[in-house]
Amino acid sequence: MILKVPSVRVIDRGFNLKAEIDDYTSLQFTRRFYRAGEFELHIPLGKQGVEELQKERIIVVNNQMHKAGIIQSRNITQDSQGLEVLVVKGPTIGGVIERRITVTDYFDRVRGPAETVMKHYINNHLINPVNPERAVLFIANAQNQGRGKETPWSSRFDPLGALIEEIAEFCDIGWTMSLDYSSKKWVFDVLPGRNLVAGQSVLPPVIFSRDFDNIISQNYVDSDQQYRNVGYAGGKGEYEDRLIQMVGSGTGADRRETFLDCSSAEDAAELVEMGNQKLAPLKTIISYDGEILNTGSFIFEQDWDLGDIVTIQNRSWGLTMDSRITEVKEIYEPISKIEISLGQEIPTIVRDVKKLNNEVKRSD
Questions:
Q1: pTM attached to this predicted model
Q2: Of 79, 148, 249, 301, which one has the greatest count of Cβ atoms within 10 A?
Q3: What's the distance, CA 275 to chain centroid?
Q4: What does pLDDT average to over the chain?
Q5: Residue 154, number of CB atoms within 10 A of its CB
Q6: C-alpha angle 285/287/293, rounded to 5°?
Q7: CATH: 2.120.10, 1.10.10, 3.40.1350, 3.55.50. Which one for 97-192?
């Protein structure tokens, strides 16, 4: 099935339609399960509506409310033939949470299902913050249904986007932000995903395999480079007086140790909980990327979508794995395609530096 090139609507924060564009040369729109995605749009200057592609305007792909992005960058280029092209980029609208940190006088502690915990921090730092100047009036939380793993969390002066990503990854539940025209709000909600693996019978299974002619290029990674299975969580105190709790397990050469700075923990119980949260990301990275054919057997957004757990098979590699779709990139160009990523995200230098900065010790 050939991917239909979608139209792109341009609106302002008041949901007023400014333009509708369908003669662009390239659109790449990426959604992610645990964090915000991004988009990039190329359009020749002089095309109808191009003047409306201004910073802080919103693009909406194919009038789908969960496929919206904030224009944050404009770049005009001219090639050797004299063709002038405007390139606009930005995050999906969920990227607005990256504009806040968790500003509190004391550590903000909360316990509950992952949905409750995430919406607690969204409410406290975007919707109803103590300082009204920090409020974003067009953002709302969807009704809390108490979904996800039970977990405690604490935060003070953390980047809100990184915090929500950490909670989502630890509890294995996604999130999204969608436009609601009726209320003129950007609505934050969790995204549980569906179990579509071959071994279950509740829903029709989805299997990506060359045997089904529904996948082209593939890349598989199984890496223990960052793997640690034992952590020594350091709590309050200095030198020999610092409280230390061990989390995880392992013996002999298979035991891989690390130190975890958990100095904000109030007591030994919270120190263990925080240690487990910090150790969890240091697991074996199993990642799979592939280009998907939108065939009659499995149709994108009907049979499968972002967040679903599906089965991947490659008999020549001896590979069969059930894994969650954590990223979907839609590419609309002369040759359009869909690319997916499953499993853990492979670390990059930029993201490692950001995480390192977030780990800087904060004082009470």
A1: 0.91
A2: 148
A3: 23
A4: 93
A5: 21
A6: 175
A7: 3.55.50
